[in-house]
């Protein structure tokens, strides 16, 4: 056991006027928003890797955190689980997420890794029952170990492909055993460093084949959750096969997997791809592929994945607007793929970072719901495209260039530009946030 969180109370909702640091000011899990409890809308999840496995390093410096569970034994893994579920009890969030290496010791062989994963997930079972915390998704870490330095599914060595496939199977089994609602694949090393030694077609074909095996295995074991891919554009490799929503959608359609796989989208990855978070969400929703989100933010002055906790309500509101507009999450949720700063050493830092992030998301959700319910933004969007509702405009999309050109000449069409009203709409959004 550990007393790491000793003295920290269970966090409760006290309202916006509270001056208690250890309280929710905006996140009231029982508040009804658009006919559903706030907890059911947001479906918050804690990321095991950043909160309990990360040691505080960055590209220019090593470990700054000292945690009693840091170590590579089963006793350390159990102590880490004790601390994790104590934090889950304090926060009261409904879900958590993990990679296999976050929760188990590393063995000498695949068999040892699998046995260790089985043991620790057995240890999770009673704790999940006691706290009521469920598994939003599980995944395999196929990027940290040196064996994956040239990728996992895309690796030029078939033995690495085989080891990765076996590891995915064991992690899917663990996720299924724990009642996980999704299974995520993130290709942190699925890319290249130089084209001089890379066969792009072969690597894409291998990645698709691995994903097909995942889909087949899902059905074989009766896993009812969603298979998710998490796009990322760079870092550590400078080009990845899952760059952004559009890239992944094209990949899935190319290999006939677009009906079986959805997307887990992260705010920080959207920024690294040169997009806004709401752009990626809107794109995925328009394709029917939005499954779940990782909530964090990047430092806009840094060109790498800083994974900070969210604190920008307007950004978060626009993100949840896209989620609500598509009908809300089904199996997905809001996972805090966020970590403390290297100088934030204390237990209370870890708790209060999540409290602040949950309050920011709650404020964003309520603003998004009000925008959607009042309908002014959608009314403006509808008005902008109103010309396309005429029978003549609709028929034009089934015409030829010759027919359209003849009509333009016959009717002497001279289009006049119309305002996009961007600033007016930005002012409108700011009324809600």
TrEMBL record:
Its EC number is 5.3.1.5. One of its GO terms (molecular function) is xylose isomerase activity. Its cofactor is Mg(2+). It is found in: Cytoplasm. InterPro entries: Xyl_isomerase-like_sf, Xyl_isomerase-like_TIM-brl, Xylose_isom_bac, Xylose_isomerase. Keywords: Carbohydrate metabolism, Cytoplasm, Isomerase, Magnesium, Metal-binding, Xylose metabolism. Mg(2+) 2 binds at residues 266, 269, 305, 307. The active site is at residues 99, 102. Belongs to the xylose isomerase family. NCBIfam families: PRK05474.1 (NF003998), xylose_isom_A (TIGR02630). This is Xylose isomerase. It comes from Citreimonas salinaria. The gene is xylA.
